[in-house]
Amino acid sequence: MSHLLREHAPITATGWDRIDEEARERLTPALAARKLIDFAGPHGWQHSATNLGRTQRVTKPPAEGLTAVQREVLPLAELRAPFAVSRVELADADRGAEDIDFAALDAAARALAVGENTAVFHGWKGAGITGIAQASTHRAIALGEDCERYPLHVAKAVEALLSAGIDCPYGIALGPVAYTRVLETSEHGGYPLLEHLREIAGGPLVWAPGVEGAVVVSLRGGDFLFDSGEDISIGYLAHDADAVQLYLEESFSFRVVTPEAAVPLSP
Predict the structure, then answer these.
(1) pTM beyond 0.90, yes or no
(2) Residue 145 in this model has a pLDDT that exceeds 90
């Protein structure tokens, strides 16, 4: 039996298929960090810590004549987003209805994606995670509201990365406000700003809910490491006559190996 206890939920195989499909559809575009960093795993629910390959001295060995060190690890953190699904809607799904109300699931999926993106790009102090923008050794470049200057800002970020010995390609995580501005803007001659920024970076631009402003990151690999224990899964909590209480859950750690491999663009 899995710790997710899905077997105890009053949900048919068809119902679970619909729930899982809805979650995938909502999470895939919103999980921006995973499109730009290294993802390792999933290693399973029992995976509890990431090996850092370092040690710290233990000041009092257990006997005379000894020295001792202790391995350093980064504990995995768990995120959970609860939601409920109506039993009437689940019954209609079994009958073949296509317009099932999964609004609560959609909100939970967005919350989890925002949480993951925020932890990766801006850090999560309570879990000991330093974000990419926090760790960057480069001075943040102010984006401002004038979209016509975005190519200049991104070019400056690219120059900073090249000067630090970080070769292209690069990707750009754009917060929702900046992403909307970019989509709505065409440069002189009608050329889409989105395409211009892609050409400068040499890599993808991703919509990144949870990101403030934008972050230009190296895509060469090995600079930003996401260690997944349990990848995003759906579990069962309880139910009554009206609804089934479920949750989205994941466990992970994240670390920045090369702080100079990213440039933050502040809002």
Answers:
(1) yes
(2) no
